[in-house]
Amino acid sequence: MAIRIGILGYGNLGRGVESAIAQNDDMELVGVFTRRSPESVEIRTPGVTAYHVDDLASKKDDIDVLILCGGSATDLPEQTPVFAKDFNVIDSFDTHARIPEHFANVDAAAKEGGHIGIISCGWDPGMFSLNRLYANCILPEGSDYTFWGKGVSQGHSDAVRRIDGVVDCRQYTIPVDAAMDAVRSGSNPELTTREKHTRECFVVAEEGADLARIESEIKNMPNYFADYDTTVHFITMEEMKANHSGLPHGGNVIRTGVTGLDKEHKHVIEYKLTLDSNPEFTGSVIVAYARAAYRMNKEGMTGAKTVFDIAPAMLSPKSGEELRAHLL
Amino acid sequence: MAIRIGILGYGNLGRGVESAIAQNDDMELVGVFTRRSPESVEIRTPGVTAYHVDDLASKKDDIDVLILCGGSATDLPEQTPVFAKDFNVIDSFDTHARIPEHFANVDAAAKEGGHIGIISCGWDPGMFSLNRLYANCILPEGSDYTFWGKGVSQGHSDAVRRIDGVVDCRQYTIPVDAAMDAVRSGSNPELTTREKHTRECFVVAEEGADLARIESEIKNMPNYFADYDTTVHFITMEEMKANHSGLPHGGNVIRTGVTGLDKEHKHVIEYKLTLDSNPEFTGSVIVAYARAAYRMNKEGMTGAKTVFDIAPAMLSPKSGEELRAHLL
User: Fold this and answer.
1) 8 Å CB contact of A315 and B261
2) Nearest by CB to B312, which of A130, A271, A280?
3) Is A140 within 8 Å of B24 when comparing Cβ atoms?
4) ipTM topping 0.95
5) Is B274 in a helix, a strand, or coil?
6) Which of B265, B274, B284, B286 to mutate to test the interface with A (most CBs of A within 10 A)?
7) For B166-219, what is each residue's pLDDT tens digit?
């Protein structure tokens, strides 16, 4: 019998989860839940119904894992603990500073309900975190570096959209090749924020807007842009739609370290993602971990978990024998 | 109290494990065990004694994890099940076809003795296997590629040394850049053995040996060289010592796959190792997993395990709180 999945939230991530479910034979999408009017939501998977989020209360026995596809700012801190009481849940919470608090809230609720609650799943946090952990355990004496991009940062794009006179923006985060090469050399460079990444903005402005002012406001925006070298291009809405409609992303996690009684040998561990679609890849990671949530709960485990707590074999539909025979 | 480690076998890997233990504050090397005469073995770590392997029988209470550093051909198939009865053990068994049998033997012995027996730990099998597994679970529709090198293959070096007239050999396995680039493009190339790697041999021959015959015997050796483009260089013993005394290695595990309801988005997951010292890096992986063996056994688990079965957090000396705060 297939693992029955519910999706809460049908934005980019929800659709990414939906397409990932379609690629996994042991999974079945039983419904998409939304705060909007369900009639207004068209689900792409044939035969799957959109429900109002309030209908979840009556679906406790029909859903093995509920995948929460809301945002980290306000949705997930509230939703994940609430729904962990009634469902195995998984989210992609990525507000780093609030992870301890979120973990504690989900842990209490999931234990109370007898469920598993996986938080902060995706690629960063998620696969990048895993690679940082493995590499740190293998090379205890070394340095960590994370580079992001080239890819679209939704947070930075949104920040620019809030500027007066801006109609739309797509912001690309671009890693600096020279910085990555310096890291790979094992020279342990200390890199400033400006040396690691550049930022490139494609902006559609209102007709007659003061482009010089917009460009200046972008480049000097604290936290988002002030510490980076930023390039701003003003384009038309047609160009935006034609050339910047995708959500590619990716990045590199690199750890360099030494071994040997005299620390005489250098090593470089590098993990690299090149992604055409950030939300579909994130959804694919989440769906694999949804399988783990289901299985761990079947084995009697409860409480909050992260990618650190989950044995890799739990993610696979294959048996231990098959995995050892074909992938070890 | 530190985790007390014993090493069985003091070749390249045993020494690599030794130096890794010195880099982990929560680990203590309590003894090196050897089939040689212990008096003939000089242990590099101050204060550590060499014992005969037969002395292990009296050390059951002094060792938390015994790390087996013998070879896969004859040592480990015998040793790992035998010692799993009395110790938590870990090995780097890498004879792929015999893993199911070895796993079963170690599982039975470890369960009988109430211990954990981790097999096939290192980087391949080991970290490369893990990356194949994670990437397959995330991208169920895709292709796997593993490239090795540039690095020294001990098996191929040994095979050349067995040729009449050869005094010494160092064989480098070299991945073909064009093949890796084709893979990274997402074009899913079908690559022959010859297209993926080349082989380069540095050979010291006996004085007066027939070099043309040696070169021909190397290039036509079945399984080892016949399917590859191989280059042979004859060098002096002085050059061998000066330029080829290290044991570098590494490689790339790449999975490419598609997502989207119409499979319209490509993704590339790549894991790359660049290692100055193959045995020290392998030893470093094994020592991290020795920590996991100790902890899993403390939690009441027994039986054979591989890297697939072990939650990543088990490898780290840090607490779950610390890991979530700093690496997630």
Assistant:
1) no
2) A130
3) yes
4) yes
5) strand
6) B265
7) 999 999 999 999 999 999 998 899 999 999 999 999 999 999 999 999 999 999
Confidence category of residue A1, pLDDT binned at 50, 70, 90:
confident
Distance CA A27, CA A23 (A): 8
A136: nearest CA partner in chain B: B316
pLDDT at A66 over 90: yes
pLDDT per residue as tens digits for the range B103-159: 999 999 999 999 999 999 999 999 999 999 999 999 999 999 999 999 999 999 999
Residue A101: predicted pLDDT: 96
Ramachandran area for residue B186 (φ above 0: left; ψ -120 to 50: alpha; else beta): left
Question: What residues in B contact A20, CB-CB < 8 Å?
Answer: 259
Residue of B18, B100, B325 lying closest to A325 (CB–CB): B100
Contacts of residue B198, Cβ cutoff 8 Å, sequence gap at least 6: B174, B176, B228, B229, B230, B231
Chain B residues whose beta carbon lies within 8 Å of the beta carbon of residue A44: 261
Q: How far is A233 from chain B (nearest CA, A)?
A: 26
Using CA atoms, how far residue B38 sits from A279, B16, B54, B79, B275, in Å, is 59, 19, 11, 19, 31
CA distance to partner chain B, nearest, from residue A134 (Å): 7
Residue B258 CB contacts under 8 Å (≥ 6 apart), including other chains: B139, B141, B142, B264, B265, B266, B267
Separation in Å, CA of B271 to nearest CA in chain A:
5
Which residues are paired to B266 by β-bridges? B258
Helices (H), chain A: 12-22, 75-84, 99-113, 127-138, 154-161, 177-184, 193-196, 211-219, 237-243, 278-298, 320-326
Q: Angle at the Cα of A90 (from A86 to A91), degrees rounded to 5?
A: 120
CA dihedral B110, A138, B281, B126 (to 10 degrees): 50
Q: Which of B286, B17, B313 is nearest to B127 (CA)?
A: B286
Q: Describe chain A by its helix, strand, coil percentages, rounded to 5.
A: 40, 25, 35
Token pair belonging to B111: 């369960």
